[in-house]
Write a structure and sequence with these properties.
mainly beta, SH3 type barrels, 7-stranded antiparallel β-sheet, 7 strands, 33% strand
């Protein structure tokens, strides 16, 4: 029997986001796990979807640009879309492809804070 996959903070996964409604980000796409390890009692993880980078994203403070590296597993210039933050069941996570570093996670978390109106302490 194999042990269940337990995603860790900072890992980049392929995630099945369907079904969706309205303007929610759709289909299978890459996402970074942002939630702290071992925090929740339920098999849920907070993720930030990653999408292909477009120059227009630079004007949106909730996007964080990511360049592809062997470590993160991304295949092209991409953007973490903090405005599309979601909590998903572990069963939606299909395959781990890489990981981001602590500085990148801090940048993404900062953008989530902007989206929810959190002011610096």
């Amino acid at each position: 029997m194999t042990s269940p996959k337990i995603p860790k903070r900072g890992e980049v996964w392929i995630v099945d986001l369907n079904p969706t409604r309205g303007a929610e980000i759709q289909k299978q796409r890459t996402a970074v796990v942002l939630s702290s390890d071992g925090l929740a009692k339920l098999p849920l993880h907070i993720i930030v979807p990653i999408t292909g980078w477009q120059s227009s994203f630079a004007a949106s403070p909730w996007f964080y640009k990511l360049s592809p590296t062997a470590k993160n597993g991304l295949g092209k210039e991409s953007g973490a879309d903090a405005f599309q933050l979601r909590s998903v069941d572990r069963g939606r996570l299909i395959d781990k492809i890489g990981a981001l570093n602590a500085g990148q996670l801090d940048e993404i978390a900062y953008r989530v804070a902007l989206c929810i109106g959190l002011k610096p302490l």
